[in-house]
Amino acid sequence: xxxxIKQVFNNxxxxxxxDSSQKAIVKGKGIAFNKSKGSKIDSSxxxxxxxxxxxxxxxxxxxxxxxxxxxxxxxxxxxxxxxxKQFNYSVEDYIYITLSDHIYGAYKRYMEGDYQPSHxxxxxxxxxxxxxxxxxGVNIINQNLKINLPSSEIxxxxxxxxxxxxxxxxxxxxxxxxxxxxxLIKRVLxxxxxxxxxxxxxxYDRFMVHLQYLEQRLNNMSADTKFDRxxxxxxxxxxxxxxxxxxxxxAEIKKARGVELNNKELxxxxxxxxxxxxxxxxxxxx
Length: 286
What we know:
The protein is α+β, with helices and mostly antiparallel strands and 286 residues long. It contains 11 helices and 5 strands; from the N terminus they run E-E-E-E-E-H-H-H-H-H-H-H-H-H-H-H.
């Protein structure tokens, strides 16, 4: 079977047309060598294929390619594809952007010798599937990107899947209220003397990416459990300053949107804020 190339990324990957509406990313050694848009490739040479099933998934791909190397993007698609095929694990499409952004940040820090182990507590007892997915994900990252991230990175990857999962029991929220979460949360950060600086800009910008998809996560907010509450207390003990700011953010969101962050989302905010303030040496003062 011959497939038509829509766009060549490099010698080993390209987008192909499957029919009038569906596209896919294909990978294979030398599969796109000396080829261009409109060229045909032999499907028997495809080693991996990632389907772009929705309009959103296609838009997300082109958004990612503006700032993130294709090898990182296809690694993300491979991890999500693994989750869906091996565990029938359903996630929101925004995970392609947030997870790609995270992986690229981890890759850059690793290459610069600045990688720090995860501060996220171990939640594998509660989120078994997510940790199994993340464990395979770290192996995929290390193999594809030729690096050696430690096993603690599993916690970071797992948290992305926990937050993007779509099968949880959700809390009803008022969809008529439109809130600019980026502006709202920047106001809280400024109130606590947290700014975007040269030293924290990578973590700060990643936090802003996270906020772009907060509306979707609020509409898919699962109820807290005693297990989640346990980790909130652990984070409050270990990172009191960042926890305080995260709770201020939660209070502002509740006031503006009528829904309170659950403990999993609060944990994500604490981690982001901790990283930002840690880069500027603000933690000791909190």
